[in-house]
Amino acid sequence: MNTLNAFFGAIQNVNINLIETLLKRFPALANTKDQRGFSPLVFATYFDKKEIAATLIKHNANVNHRDAKGNTALLGVAFKGNVEIAELLLDNGAEINAQNKLGYSALIYATLYNQPKMVEFLLKQNADSSLKDLENKSALEYAKEKDFKEIITLLENKEIIYSQTT
């Protein structure tokens, strides 16, 4: 097994000791890509591995790395609704309003996948609710189209949510 496969295997299996050892020996691994174009951080966050994500960030993983479709780790956790990892990423410089090649932002993804806690969190972090995707639709337009009432309420009352954070 080569080093890259061992490294990504250690991420998937949550083997912190092996990850730390490999990163100390090969620091560039923190920002390398697998055969599908995923960075270690995108890979770790896809599997909801917060401890691994924190370790990778500690070893200078780029929190704004994009995969082949333009997704960042934050976009990946937004559709899954993992607020803890989203907070970790934002605390370490993730771009809250990054958009992928389809124009989806974290807020649009959280809306499309009916993740109201994530929508509320992103709004409190000042996500731009006016962003539109390539179909010229905003998060609110998707929420209305899918009749996600809780998310509609959050997006329509975002000024109230913002004022609670100040």
From TrEMBL:
Stretches forming ANK repeats: 36-68, 69-101, 102-134
InterPro entries, per database record: Ankyrin_rpt, Ankyrin_rpt-contain_sf
UniProtKB keywords: ANK repeat, Repeat
Pfam families (alphabetical): Ank, Ank_2
Signal peptide: none
PROSITE patterns in UniProt: ANK_REP_REGION, ANK_REPEAT
Matches recorded under PANTHER family: ANKYRIN REPEAT DOMAIN-CONTAINING PROTEIN 39 (PTHR24171:SF9), ANKYRIN REPEAT DOMAIN-CONTAINING PROTEIN 39-RELATED (PTHR24171)
Protein name in UniProt: Uncharacterized protein
Source organism of the structure: Polaribacter reichenbachii
